[in-house]
Write a structure and sequence with these properties.
Elements: E1 3-12, E2 15-25, E3 30-34, H1 41-49, E4 55-60, E5 63-64, H2 70-76, E6 78-81, H3 93-98, H4 114-120, H5 122-126, H6 137-150, E7 155-159, H7 167-182, E8 186-190, H8 197-200, E9 203-208, E10 211-216, H9 218-222, H10 225-231
Parallel strand pairs: 3-8, 3-9, 6-7, 7-8
Antiparallel strand pairs: 1-2, 1-4, 4-5, 9-10
The structure holds adenosine-5'-triphosphate and magnesium ion.
Residues 41-42, 83, 159 line the site of magnesium ion.
Length: 234
């Protein structure tokens, strides 16, 4: 098992946000985590990543990681693309990508290389030596994803990568997610709406109020009008 989250709780001050989250991701799987605004999807990622303190168990490749620091968890092989596209605006595209390498890691030593990013995204290739601040929102999203991949993670958690993107850019994101899965890398994809998740995910979790309220395949979720009405549609 790549990731196994058992009875995970998390708090902001006294607010009990995550109330016993259970989920898992297997090797090479794309798993979507869906839910309305504010139900705790991002907090789930942050708690797995150690950016918010988790209570309960978080196992990555069989090893307990709850209690470890975010940088340790990243070095163990979890890549995290947060919902705010946090590029380094004053640095070039190429420099941003280089910053995704782990300490001591050489470009091309892992499953990805900078060239493979440029091959996937000609927009990034064209803007390789331009300051990242001038990239479009979609290009910045691509850059953030690619920078995370440069660190050669075994599992990537991607928080709402398609938000605010054009349909064409959404397709691009879907292609990258498939390319990631083809390399045997696992993905936990956070989305709000059904969107691309239903097309590309192997399994889907729906969150409501700090807990998982549905688990199944995209086809099973499609058949559950009640779940979609209660927990997803606005
Ligand atoms: N730093 C914080 N301090 C206090 N409360 C927070 C903090 N971050 C999030 N929350 C609260 O925790 C709850 C879950 O937030 P979270 O960001 O996980 O939601 P989400 O499912 O990712 O939704 P969205 O991305 O649409 O906001 C929300 O009620 C939110 O207001
Ligand atoms: Mg969020």
């Amino acid at each position: 098992m790549m990731l196994e989250v058992t009875d995970m709780h998390a708090y902001y001050g006294k607010s009990h946000i995550l109330q016993g989250v259970n989920l898992n991701v297997q090797e090479g799987e794309i798993v979507a985590l869906l839910g309305r605004n504010g139900v705790g999807r991002s907090t789930t990622c942050k708690a797995i990543m150690g950016e918010v303190e988790p209570k309960g168990s978080v196992k990555f490749q069989g090893q307990e990681i709850a209690g470890k620091k975010a940088f340790q968890i990243a070095n163990m092989g979890i890549g995290y693309v947060p919902e705010n596209r946090d590029i380094f605006p004053g640095l070039t595209t190429r420099q941003n990508l280089t910053l995704g390498l782990k300490p001591g890691q050489k470009d091309g030593a892992g499953r990805w290389s900078m060239q493979s990013m440029f091959d996937m995204f000609e927009n990034l290739d064209r803007r390789a030596d331009v300051e990242a601040s001038v990239l479009s929102g979609g290009e910045q999203q691509m850059l953030t994803m690619c920078r995370t991949l440069m660190g050669d993670p075994d599992l990537v958690m991607i928080d709402e990568p398609t938000e605010g993107l054009s349909p064409q850019m959404v397709q691009k994101v879907a292609e990258v997610l498939k390319a990631i899965a083809e390399k045997g890398i696992s993905t936990l994809l956070v989305e709000q709406k059904l969107s691309i998740a239903m097309d590309i995910a192997d399994r889907v979790y729906v969150m409501g109020h700090g807990q998982v309220v549905f688990e199944g395949t995209p086809a099973e979720l499609k058949a559950r009008d009640d779940v979609r009405k209660e927990w997803l549609e606005v």
